[in-house]
Input
Amino acid sequence: MSKDKKGQDIGKMPDGRIVLCGANAYEQKYYFNPLFGKIPKSIQDEIHIVCVLFTEEVGGVITFIFEEDGSLSIETEAAEDDYLYDEISSGLLISKIRRNRQELLSQLSLYYRIFILHENIDDVMAEWEAMENGEEGEEE
Output
């Protein structure tokens, strides 16, 4: 991961994506990228709980990562010798998180695009509202 000008870890991966947060069942650790410290504490707490509950139930490692386009990915992995890790349960739980926390994930992506990528707020909001109204992919 990369460091900022002050030497702080900014969670930037070699491929340009930026880690928001993650939890590791093996080390029993949670990481939250300090770059996102201005996200309200209640939201930070909510994603912390989601990450820790995932690793408690399934094991392995879960990571929330912002893609270069501003979308938010959820990735999981397990150690090769972790025979207790259940890949099927992992996939089902990720689907459940996406379904039950859809609004939270969308808002985090919106935050990233506006405050980190510095995209035009009017353009981002118009795109987001169109998506919320089911207008994505419609032609005029």
